[in-house]
Design brief:
- It contains 8 helices and no strands.
- About 75% of the residues lie in helices and about 0% in strands.
- The chain has about 200 residues and is mainly alpha-helical.
- The radius of gyration is 19 Å and the shape is globular.
- It has one domain.
């Protein structure tokens, strides 16, 4: 199957998939306030609910934006390098990050895994994200092995980063575990859907 998509169109498909991943993770990490029937009957609680709902929506947007920073930076660099027929200079991407110095090695491994993943999809043939994946990975097992490598690199970076995050009675550790589980579930479900 010959792809009629340009590099920028493939970029858009891949970035849309990363945004969907970010939205799913955000929904799993951030608790949505629940509207109770009794709140409608007492106006002050109804207003309070909408205040929390607005904070929730703003929190989702901020979480998604932050979750995508590295992914977008790597995808942008990979797209530019692919168009120029060059390879991404991973060290430059690591240098512009705000990852603590003690985590740079793990961050570089994650960036490299992302770069390799995105490069193969940008070079693939297809007219949808699923077709790009199928063109690159001939079966579900191959795709899952790549996703496992990607997840492992991200988990290793998260583990190295955790000591540098604020200590708040284990809440950060729980959020990181929830994020990792959400990413893995999204990718596993997607692999199962693409290779039905």
């Amino acid at each position: 199957m010959k792809s009629s998509l340009s590099l920028s169109e493939k970029y858009e498909l891949i970035f849309a998939n990363e945004k969907q991943l970010a939205k799913n993770v955000a929904a799993d990490v951030i608790d949505k306030p629940q509207l109770e029937l009794w709140m409608i009957l007492i106006p002050v609680f109804f207003v309070f609910y909408f205040f929390h709902l607005k904070r929730y929506k703003n929190g989702l947007k901020e979480f998604i934006r932050n979750f995508l920073i590295t992914r977008k930076r790597v995808l942008d660099a990979t797209c530019e390098a692919t168009q120029a027929g060059k390879d991404v200079v991973v060290a430059e991407l690591v240098d512009v990050s705000d990852a603590p110095g003690e985590t740079k090695k793990e961050y570089q491994a994650w960036v490299t895994a992302l770069k390799d993943f995105f490069r193969l999809l940008l070079q693939a043939q297809g007219n949808s994200y699923a077709e790009l994946v199928k063109s690159t990975y001939k079966n579900r097992t191959d795709f899952l092995l790549t996703l496992h490598k990607l997840n492992t690199a991200e988990r290793t970076f998260n583990k190295a980063l955790t000591p540098f995050l604020p200590d708040d009675e284990g809440n950060i550790a729980n959020v990181v575990k929830t994020m990792e589980a959400s990413v893995e579930k999204f990718r596993r479900d997607q692999a199962n859907e693409i290779f039905m």
